[in-house]
């Protein structure tokens, strides 16, 4: 199962907002730059997140986007569901009536177990968890005399 670019970029954008929780709105162009997300794509991506009440958009000189609730209250599964839809590896897991023999099909059972396992991980992960994991990665890779930022799995030096 592969998540779409939409789900991956949406998660990265919300992680960026979570890392800056409580510091005011963040400009879309800054998120796009730090996370290497095309700005136009990001502009379209935030609409469903605003509509779902996960983030808010603020206009004006000090505008940008920000989380509406603390990162500990934003669950990864709700974001993935919103941006991706079902994570079932095959359609019959969500709709057994699509395949009349699903109750006798052993592979159906395996796909259902895969979905259940993925749901478990996504439902038990908050954006606060992701922030903590990100900070751990930075601390493991970061020399004490300079600060680095992780972008697409690469370290980019951040000038002071």
* SSE run: HHHEEHHHHEE
Going by helix content, strand content and strand pairing, the class is mainly alpha
**Parts with pLDDT < 50 across at least 5 consecutive residues:** none
Strand sequence of the main sheet, in spatial order?
1-2
Mean pLDDT rating: 87
Beta percentage is: 5-15%
Provide a descriptive summary of the structure in words.
The chain is mainly alpha-helical and 160 residues long. It is 51% helix and 11% strand. It has seven helices and four strands; from the N terminus they run H-H-H-E-E-H-H-H-H-E-E. The chain has helices at residues 5-19, 28-35, 39-51, 76-84, 91-94, 106-123, 127-141, and strands at residues 55-58, 64-67, 147-151, 154-158. Strands 1-2 form a two-stranded antiparallel ribbon. Strand 1 and strand 2 form a beta hairpin. The radius of gyration is 18 Å and the shape is elongated. The termini are far apart.
